[in-house]
Amino acid sequence: MTALPLTRGRGRTGWALTLIVCAAVLLVLPHVIYPVLALDILAFGLFAVAFDLLFGFSGLLSFGHAAFWGVSAYATAYLLGHGQSVPVALLGGLLAAVLIAWPIGFLSVRSIGIYFSMITLAFAQMLSFLALQWTDVTGGENGLQGLARPNLLGLDFSNGFHRYYFALAVFAVGFFAAYRTVRSPFGKTLVAVRDNETRARSVGYSPTRFKLTAFVISAALSGLAGALFVFGHGVVSLEVVSWRTSGEVVMMTLLGGTGTLFGPVVGAAVVLLLRDVLSTANLPVGIVTGLVFVLTVLFFRRGVVGTLLGWLARRG
Amino acid sequence: MNTQLMFIQVFNGLVNGAFFALLSLGLAVIFGLLRIVNFAHGALYMLGAFVAFALGQALGLGFWPALILAPLLVGALGVALERGLLRRLYGLDPSYNLLLTFGLTLLVQDVIKQVMLSRYAVSSAPYTIPQELVGATNLGFVFFPTYRLFVIVFALVVCLATWFVIERTRVGAVIRAATENPTVTQAFGIDVSRWVTIVFGLGVALAALAGVLAAPIYSVEPYMGSELIIVTFAVVVIGGMGSILGSVVTGFAVGVLVALGSALYPPIANTLVFVLMALVLLLRPNGLFGLPEAK
């Protein structure tokens, strides 16, 4: 959770270079692996970036972020199922996430540390039970399947590549929003609140208000990501609101590197590719992911990107 | 709902409450004294049930020896976890304990699933009630399964004993001193690090004990702890984190409340505990029995 050790000038060129490399990778990705998996990486990548906005930059470990991803997924599926266009469905999902995030955030950001984690987890679980019961809208145990994806502006969404490149554009918008938030005065204040709440309060900031705003922004981006996930798969199941999903996004972020914006995307890619390999190799997924999680927490807390940046900083 | 049904619901609620109480008590002991949020508590509860089952399969051990042996074995595993893994995270943000134990949960659940599938060719197995506890007991106004009554009474006794040891005995005083001010306690010649390990092992043993008790009621399966741990977390937040008395009272109370709620309006049963938690957070952010300085 430490701030990046890069100097400003070097940071600028570093950023531009990283951005170009990442853009290139993301552009060719669906041709290297298959498009559905590539789109999953975008959706979970954006989800992890949104989570890191809260965890890495405000120090709030939400253990219930599946709530926003999941609520948005259901809302998006519902709208797509009721004949709405893709952009309306995606925005509707985002809006649903924001609407649910406001009261949850209001109740939970007053608590700190581990309390915050447990409270967010419990709220997410409440929504998960709601999703199970409210079968008219969520399909309960069966979920919602075979959702229509109306075409848009000459794009044929039955084609995986078209879906992927549309999703990449949405991802880019979301990632840029996160980048702007983190680099803005607001983002700097968040870090200040994280590092020393008493001091931030004494110079006139209201920590609670900043945290709530960060919470809602994070939920909005998680919602956008959840909407992308449903758009990519055409199905939504109870798994989207499960606490395992909440844990998974934590793992992706941690593995990639907290407090770095590229890290979570890398982490999401590593986890999803690993899971893909494991499922074809017929190895038990839970054992391997659990082990990776434990080892990351014990020995690799700065994650892939964090470690890389630390190494670069020591060299430079 | 007639009175008799109502009493049965209350008793069923007390049975569920017994598991909430035992689990949240273990969490409270571990959190209150060591500041560790043990997400793996649910998996260790499952492990208690599984070890009891495996002891029966491999050595033909019955319920009573398992009730002693399984918590000891799982408690020993807890000691190994504290020494080998959790110890490395002391001094860091407590979030890392939560994350590590979350990873352990995934690991343990799937390892047990593999073991059950490969060794016993099942993913869920029933566990039989000991002869002495088969049947129903007449409580005067209603008949209630003897085993379930036993669970309520046994859990209550264990909870009270734990509370008594920590709050009222010399050993408890040493433990509290060791965790509240390690440096000074160390200066008195007390091996703090050993007490920390013992407390963690004790908390884990409590979870395993709950698992053995639960095995005949819910049968043994790898994910039996995964939903329970989330509800237990809500119970802990309602009761006030780290409060030993709070976790016991709230555990039983929430069990009864959920049972009554589900009898009156079934769809709400599972959400009721979380609604309650939201209300408590609004009115008393530190929980019903929480201490204001707890952070």
From TrEMBL, chain A:
Subcellular location: Cell membrane
Pfam families: BPD_transp_2 (PF02653)
Membrane-related topology note: Multi-pass membrane protein
Signal sequence extent: none
Keywords per UniProt: Cell membrane, Membrane, Transmembrane, Transmembrane helix
A GO cellular component entry from the record: plasma membrane
Segments crossing the lipid bilayer: 15-34, 41-68, 88-107, 114-134, 161-179, 212-231, 251-274, 281-300
GO MF term list: branched-chain amino acid transmembrane transporter activity
Primary location class: membrane
PANTHER family, per database record: ABC TRANSPORTER ATP-BINDING PROTEIN (PTHR30482:SF17), HIGH-AFFINITY BRANCHED-CHAIN AMINO ACID TRANSPORT SYSTEM PERMEASE (PTHR30482)
Name of the protein described by the UniProt record: Amino acid/amide ABC transporter membrane protein 2 (HAAT family)
